Amino acid sequence: MTQYDKHDPNTIYPAPPFPKQEQSLPGAAWKMDPKPDHGETSYVGRDRLTGFRGIVTGADSGIGRAAAIALSREGADLVLSYLPDEQRDAEEVRDLLTSEGRKAILLPGDIADEEYCNRLVETAVDELGGLDTLVMVAGRMDSNDDILTLDTAAFDSTFKTNIYSLFWLTKAAIPHLEPGSTIVTTSSSQASSPSPDKVDYAVSKGAVKIFTEAMAQQLAPKGIRVNSVAPGPVWTPLQPGSDDAETVSTFGEGTPFGRPGQPAELAAAYVHLVSPESSYQTGSTISVAGGNPVF
Ligand code: NAD
Ligand code: MG
């Protein structure tokens, strides 16, 4: 099967109930049951990004891994960002991409740290010879249904990871981006339909959407486009990392397709927004949410 084969979206991928499972953050793709599909065996490239040089954050697992595989198969050389604890997942991605003849350079670190964000951009420029796209997929989500027990450290960590990193990485990247370059952020359906137990996360994702819209206007004169992808429920380690086993077992049930999306189903949105084919698109958000209404 490839992404171009016709199929019924209701039945192509696993639906709940899923085996009960929990992990601690950041979670690992290799521990998930069933295994997420990141497009390893299905994504077919069509030379849409030949010669592109990019950074993908959160590239070890989930949506970031699917984006990295797709961008690489379209011809891009990449620097892959992830947390040091995720080395095993990251090496799987690197080995796959380099075995296909592309550059995939690993640089673990914490994007909640400005110095690491600067180093990530410098590494891409040095190792790839420049930068054409900054694809920011990394994110932190945790659950807490009572603001009285949501502590400042958790709130701070969510904002540092989900929104300060965009500020730092974008600032570091701009001096290297020529006209025709692109920036892609990752928001969430939580930005428009927040859950009561995800206050800090939902607010940070709302900020991602606004950051995207404001920066798109600021960078338009430089010929740099800024767009966002807003996923609905997607089968990644973020869920067993932040929700209880019961919630994970029914994940995606409430969507019209009755199942969560797989990371591979978001890859084409990132490719489209990175590629010159979306040249009149900036400040926009592509929602990939399995039919849940997005406002
Ligand atoms: P994931 O756990 O596979 O990916 C998130 C990645 O973020 C991790 O792999 C990790 O490398 C990275 N990360 C987290 N904190 C970091 C830090 N401090 N420094 C560096 N890297 C860090 O889960 P995913 O679902 O693929 O998440 C990708 C993005 O999609 C996130 O921004 C998430 O908020 C967003 N999203 C996911 C869903 C979903 O249902 N899975 C829904 C809406 C939005
Ligand atoms: Mg991960």
Automatic annotation (TrEMBL):
GO MF assignments: oxidoreductase activity, acting on CH-OH group of donors
Keywords assigned: Oxidoreductase
PROSITE patterns cross-referenced by the UniProt entry: ADH_SHORT
Region of interest: Disordered: 1-44
Superkingdom of origin organism: Bacteria
Family (UniProt): Belongs to the short-chain dehydrogenases/reductases (SDR) family.
Protein's name according to its UniProt entry: NAD(P)-dependent dehydrogenase (Short-subunit alcohol dehydrogenase family)
Source organism per UniProt: Frondihabitans australicus
